[in-house]
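call fold(seq) -> C-alpha cells
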Amino acid sequence: MAGAVHKTVVIADDTPFVRDRFKAAIEHAGHRAFTVRSAAELLARVRADLPAIDLVVVDLRLPHAGGVDLVRSIRKLDGGRLPILVFSGTIGGASEVRDLANLGIAGYVNEYSASQQILPSLAPHLFRDNFNRRNSPRVALGIPVAYRFGNTIAAAVTLNLGRGGLAIRTMSPLEPSTRARVRFRLPNSRRDVDADACVAWSDRRVGMGMQFERIDANDESAVEGFVDAQHLQHAS
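ret:
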C-alpha cells in the first residue's frame, strides 16, 4: 500500500465465505483484519481494541443480535468514533436505514462484492483524510477510461464510479496526490465526460481511486444522475 499505511479492520459476519473473502482482500493489501462470528465477539473486540480499530464492517443479522441495536451497542462503546459499514444484504427495511443514518454509519457494502471490488469499496473509509470526496454510493462499473498525467496518456477500465470520483483497475497506479485529466463515457451516453482529478488512494495490486476536482456542470449532473439511478435500482 502506498505510503505503507497499515489499517485494522474488524469483519463481523456469521458466514465463513464472506468473512474469509474480506479478510483475504484486506490482508493482501497489507492491512490487518480480525474476523468475528457473533455480536458478543464483535462487542468484545471493540471493547478490547477500540484505539487500534480503523473500520468495522458488520452483518446486522449476527446470532443473538438485534439488528440496529447492535450498532447502538457499538456506539455506547466508541462514542461515535468508529466508521461502521453495514453489509447491505442484512438490512431489514427502510426504518432500519433511517435508524442507522441517525447512528452515523459510514455506509453500506455488498457482502458478495467481487474480490477485486472489496478494497476500493473500503478505501474511502480507511483513508478518510486522503479520500476527501463527497459521500455517495459507489456503483460497480467496468467501462473504458483514459487518463492523462504530464505528457503521458494511459487507458484502463473502471472498477466503480461515484458522484465524486472513480476507481480504476491498473497494475501501474499513480502516486497519491497526483493530478490527472480523466475521460470516460457513461453507458448509453453519446458524449464523453472530462474531469480534472486527484489520486486519493493507490495500490499496485488493485488500482487507484481518483477524486474529481473540476468537472463541467453538465457532466457532473450526468454522473450524479447515473450513480443515483443505479443505486436506487440495486437497493430496490
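The longest strand covers residues 152-162.
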